TrEMBL record:
InterPro entries: F-box-like_dom_sf (IPR036047), F-box_dom (IPR001810), FBXW2 (IPR042627), WD40/YVTN_repeat-like_dom_sf (IPR015943), WD40_repeat_CS (IPR019775), WD40_repeat_dom_sf (IPR036322), WD40_rpt (IPR001680)
Protein name according to UniProt: F-box domain-containing protein
Lyase in keyword set: no
SMART domains, per the entry: FBOX (SM00256), WD40 (SM00320)
Organism from which the protein derives: Saimiri boliviensis boliviensis
Pfam families to which the protein is assigned, alphabetical: F-box-like, WD40
Keywords of this entry: Repeat, WD repeat
Domain called F-box: residue spans: 29-76
Origin: domain of life: Eukaryota
Amino acid sequence: MERKHFETCLSGAVQLRHLSNNLETLLKRDFLKLLPLELSFYLLKWLDPQTLLTCCLVSKQWNKVISARTEVWQTACKNSGWQIDDSVQDALHWRKVYLKAILRMKQLEDHEAFETSSLIGHSARVHALYCKDGLLCTGLDDLSAKLWDVSTGQCVYGIQTHTCAAVKFDEQKLVTGSFDNTVACWEWSSKARTQHFRGHTGAGGLPFFKGFYSY
């Protein structure tokens, strides 16, 4: 009687193990393999970017499929509010763009996104800034403007001007808008004022004027 009970228990354990192994196979079905690819891609498009990255960790197959779909990562970028060029059909490119942006946002949150440096040489308050091609122009309260090389921190040019409310420049010229309601054009090389415009009723701002400076 005891032997029969033991065999019944043993048989039950074997059956449970067999059932467990088969249930695991039945319950853990990979829909990326079972569904048509078009349907799988359609479903993936509705996942948020963070979930997509998590899905890439499920298996090599999932990572390969998800990473290879241009539409998935383009949609992820669009859903995050970024403007993209739809003509670029390179899935790895868009995944790198997304990952780089995520890293950048984290750096911004942690205040680690930018390196800071100081430009030494101002003797008064800075009212105006304009940066272009690694150069920074500053308009000061001491009737001067300076052009700086951002990479070295060195002052390239310094010009005596009026009190600057706005500044813009190119390789040859500097254009300034002043609190005295005038706009002036200056030459870097000679430090001379070449043109002077009056008639504003407020501090001179500087929209783009063809012929004075270029971007």
